Amino acid sequence: MIATTRLINVRLSDPLRPAAGSPQLRPLILLCLKAPDGLVGHGEAAPLESYDGISVERALAALDRHRAVLTELPEPTHVAGLREAVAACVTADPLPQALAAVDMALWDLIGRRTGSSIHELLGVRDPPPIALNATIGAVAPAEAAAEAASAQHAGFAALKVKVGTPDDRQRLKAVRDAVGPEMLIRADANGSWDRLTAPERLRALARFDIELFEEPVHGLAATEALTKALPDVAVSLDESAGAALADGARQLCTALCLKVSASGGISGLIADAARARELGYEVYIASTLDGPLGIAAALHAADVVRPDRHCGLATLGRLDRPVPAELQPVDGLILAPAGPGLGDGLLDWY
Ligand SMILES: [Mg+2]
Questions:
Q1: For ligand 1, a single-atom ion, which residues have Cβ within 5 Å?
Q2: How many whole angstroms separate alpha carbon 335 and alpha carbon 299?
Q3: pLDDT tens digits, the chain, 350 residues: what are they?
Q4: Which residue intervals of 197-350 are DSSP H helices?
Q5: Ligand 1 center–CA 216 separation, angstroms
Q6: Cis, peptide link before residue 340, omega less than 30° from 0
Q7: H or E element at residue 334
Q8: What is the 238 CA–ligand 1 centroid distance (Å)?
Q9: How many CB atoms neighbour CB 2 within 10 A?
Q10: N or C, which end of the chain has less CB nearby within 10 Å?
């Protein structure tokens, strides 16, 4: 196979955190994997240094090693061959963000070769739609309320609101007042609260009927201390989900938020979800401001995983390019693309 990469920088139309240091461009690396007869599969690496600490340069270096491995391998024609190819790339460089692109491109290639969607290859026919949440940044309360009302009007039954700024209380109050009691509201602090003040903050915000606090404090020890102090408040891990799985000794909170990029692709995400559930966690899936290929990959994986909560995969609108028709949520729901592979109509975006 011949593997090539291309780096693109996509402008954020609506940065989730307008504070200093937030990225204005979202770099993505497109991986093209060409079979000897010219059939091509595509994948995407979505490192986001401000979120996962992985630079574009680091991901490109890993993909260079993977390209060298893939060039030596025959095209996999079945899932066992895919797993062998991914395992060879893991040996060359285990960086999950780059492996995700390899895994995705291999699934895409097999799907195109066989005329099947990836969820069909994974044994799922006619999957039901995946329920999504809309995401609201750490914006001023009035703006958050307007975005919440707009998301409700578009049919979303769940919202994720970014918190971790001095006006969290006002923002959540404005959102709850705007959408009424039925809407699920998740609060995502991105690990920004310290363990001493976090219990007090959670108690103060829980009055707005918060579905789940995502990564309120950073790290396993702080999370365990928090959930022991507040056993009735639902907490999930996002940035620390991988550490919770690697630790693997005990369940620290209610749920884990899994991502194609952090889990090393579709295969890795499905394996991580199974492991998470063995440990007692609920599971849901989100994007790392992924492009259409990453979102499609997450949806195919979600058809297997069947997430327990609303998924954060309605994020393409945050990037300043038209959302492909196949990936436009309807009433807060979305179907994995029909295929073949990851789906058609996604590549023009790149
Ligand atoms: Mg998060």
A1: 188, 214, 238
A2: 7
A3: 999 999 999 998 865 554 445 568 899 999 999 999 999 999 999 999 988 999 999 999 999 999 999 999 999 988 999 999 999 999 999 999 999 999 999 999 999 999 999 999 999 999 999 999 999 999 999 999 999 999 999 999 999 999 999 999 999 999 999 999 999 999 999 999 999 999 999 999 999 999 999 999 999 999 999 999 999 999 999 999 999 999 988 899 999 999 999 999 999 999 999 999 999 999 999 999 999 999 999 999 999 999 999 999 999 999 999 999 999 999 999 999 998 999 999 999 99
A4: 198-206, 220-229, 241-247, 260-263, 266-278, 292-305
A5: 9
A6: yes
A7: strand 333-334
A8: 5
A9: 13
A10: C
Ligand 1 center–CA 50 separation, angstroms: 12
**Can you tell me which residue has the tokens 């996002």?**
238
Cβ-based burial of 325 (10 A; exposed 0-12, middle 13-18, buried ≥19): exposed
Ligand 1 center to 239 CA (angstroms): 7
For 209-228, what is the HEC assignment? CEEEEECCECCHHHHHHHHH
Question: Which residue carries 């609506």 as its tokens?
Answer: 14
> Considering the entire predicted model, what is its pTM?
0.96
Gap from CA of 188 to ligand 1 centroid (Å): 6
- What is the full DSSP assignment across 101-152? HHHHHHHHHHHHHHT-BHHHHTT--SPPPEEB-EEE-S--HHHHHHHHHHHH
Work out the number of other CB atoms within 10 angstroms of the CB of residue 70. 23
Strands 333-334 and 130-131: antiparallel
Residue 63: name the closest of 108, 105, 27, 99 by CA.
99
Distance 236 CA to ligand 1 centre (A): 9
